[in-house]
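Reply to dn_fold:

You asked what the input looked like. This is it:
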Amino acid sequence: MSTSAATNLVKNWILEQIESGELSEGECIPSEFDIKKLLNINHDEIEKAIHELVTEQVLSQKSGEGAIVKPKQPYYYPLDELVSITKMIEKNGQVAGTEFISLDEEVVTNQEMTILNLDENALISVIERVRTADGEPVVYCLDKISTDLFPCSDYNSDLSLLSAIENNVEFKITHADTSIESISYEPYISEILNSDPDDAMMLLTQTHYNNEGVPILYSLNYFKSSLVKFRIKRNRI
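and this is what came back:
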């Protein structure tokens, strides 16, 4: 991507408008005609500047609509630490809450039997809930654990699930294998999270282990991409 001085001039002008507060998050930037009139820059350079700022995630643009200042996600979730969603929300100065959708005991499926290393026909607690910040939905959570370790009846509060489990057992949950993928609109979950059809979600699928490497908890957490940004520190080897 080769950027000319004229393109940089337009980019810097838009960035200055954002930094000064002249342009707010979610607000449309001036039209290309207005920018051309103000800066005396040709249309192609303005279009390229806007395209680059969209690529750099400073601006957001939908097909057929003008560019807007992309709203910043208020929450950071570190992928290199085993941090509860409660702490993520509280770190942003908000009250973490839980809306329970269902608490059931079910017979383990073949997939869950393999993931959690359980016997055939074992029972698992299936906990379906939404984590909220000041009452607004942020994350949809589906958690599964052996009823021998954690019966559904033992969980009915805003306490972190990891903490609630550790209050029931004599070991600590020390690490988790995690995968992350982008999920487009999914009617059931998106509706629960009050997500727009264009609002993607990030799915964290995690298997949590104790310090002896025994699988304890299988979790699927759907984060609203418009609210949560993920962070990880990577070391070069």
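The helical segments are 5-19, 32-39, 43-55, 85-91, 110-116, 161-166, 187-192.
Hope that clears it up.
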